[in-house]
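Lab meeting, action items carried over

1. Structure of the two-component assembly. Owner: GW. Status: complete.
Input record:
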Amino acid sequence: MVAFASAPWPWYVAGPVIGLFVPVLLILGNRLFGVSSTLRDVCAIVFPRKIEFFHYDWKRKHLWNLLFVAGIPIGGFLAAHWAGSQNVAISEATRLALAKLGIHDFSGPAPIEVFTWSALLTVRGFVSVIVGGFLVGFGTAYAGGCTSGHAISGLADLQLPSLIAVIGFFAGGLIATHFILPLLF
Amino acid sequence: MSTTDSPHHGAFGQAKDQTWFDLLAYLFLGVAFGAVLTKSEVLSWFRIQEMFRFQSPRMYEIIASAVVVAAASVALIKRLRLKTISGEPIAIPPKKLGLGVRYAVGGTIFGLGWALTGACPGPLFALVGNGVTVMIAAIASALAGTWLYGWRRPKLPH
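Predicted assembly:
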């Protein structure tokens, strides 16, 4: 049990457990599993101005989603602390490719050479965190969903718009990985 | 609300009273989701890089099995006409296709950000809990991106 708790889960445990969030949320209250809509909610709460997109009844419709998302960092903290943190066991090929890009520290979930506050002052840190974050926010709002809302919930309901979105997710990801990262790192 | 509204905001308009117990249940589920993202390593920049370089099937196996389990559950819910615990019929609002531009272009823009940050929105929040606190800046920037979209939305093709 302790070994199971501390080791990373195999894909056949991780994937199905993620998939089960869809029926659980539907049965609990007709809620559609998705994370990115909370970004809109926060804009609606904090800085709606006179923008139509940010004027809706978030309290009634989305309080659940805000609480769900508030729970995520708590769960991340608990999981990272009950289980000894270990390096992510990526393939040798990935390790070599990343080493060529100048990544030397493979500890933790993200490379500390890029994802620290002080690295924000470097080009690669700034582009990865600030530009990347901005594109995540703009893109998910434009597409009306992210990996959870489109790739999991949308595909599970066999919706064509979600399939188009997911193809876009991968097109963008491949462009950034193979053409932008080599310029940046 | 206009017709090209986000798919998350469709048919959930029906009035429903939320009790504190309901809301606590969602918080608890979020905690569980954050733990799952951590234990599955889905939140890892390294795993996302491995995925976009096609150097391990792991992320594809996780996404595919998640979709299969979710799709089978949704099919079963529809076939059995299951209701929510409060007795409401379960309905998933269809997303409007429109021109499809928003999905193709918005999806690609998100994809660029996904590979750059190494995280989609769920993992961004989970990473903060994992101690990668700089992701607070990524979330703030994502909020700015969402806000810019909301502001420019009437001018964008959907």
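2. GW to write a short summary for the group page. Key points so far: The longest helix of chain A spans residues 58-82. Helices of chain A lie at 2-6, 11-29, 37-46, 58-82, 92-100, 123-143, 147-156, 160-184.
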